[in-house]
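Record 1 of the preview.
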Amino acid sequence: MTADAQERLRSVRHRIARACVRAGRTPEAVQLVGVCKRQPIERIVQSIRAGLGQLGENYVQALQERRPLIEAQLEPELAAQLRWRMVGGLQRNKARAAISVVDSVDSVDRASLAEELDKRAAAVSRVIDVCLQVNLSREPRKGGVDVTGLPALLEACGTLSNLRVVGLMTIPAASDDPEASRPSFARLRELRDTLREAPGGGNLHELSMGMSGDFEVAVEEGATLVRVGTALFGARDAAPGSTGRDT
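->
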């Protein structure tokens, strides 16, 4: 089983490296985030032992429950090196809990959430990194700020002392064709590059985009963070009634 985890991690990293070569980039420019959503703890621990250093979770409650269980199976120095990211939608009333268990929130999409995260981070003397989630597909049920509202959200976040906006995140419309995601990825890169000169954009450098089905295209278009679940850990059980895109 450990050998399987090593092979999956090696395969994903190899695919990232090949995409970097095609785009004239260095593999070191791309960080791999293993998405833990509904994955067995055993697989996650094995991947960490194989060299995975960043984990993403979609739900605060799952992170609260599973992080201690995962870290308990690791040597203290290995657990201390892990970086935990919130990659799913976040409600304001979960902000305090999120601040206690994550290093980064990659799904901030409204000023009220940013303000609450800032308040909770200040209460524990932390400065937390965030990415702003942008809804480029304009799907009503999908989280993310509309492109037209992005500059205002960025500027509002720039006034918050305990929040540091370091990048943008997006989830393209679901498709079986990885190439269908390319326009969204290219657009997010353009937005990031443009907004670096806008109020609040001084720290913009990350592009969190690309999942199991399209992360190579995302890397070709400039992704600095790819969020990979099934390609890294294997298939997960679908939640009852779930729909949409798999990580």
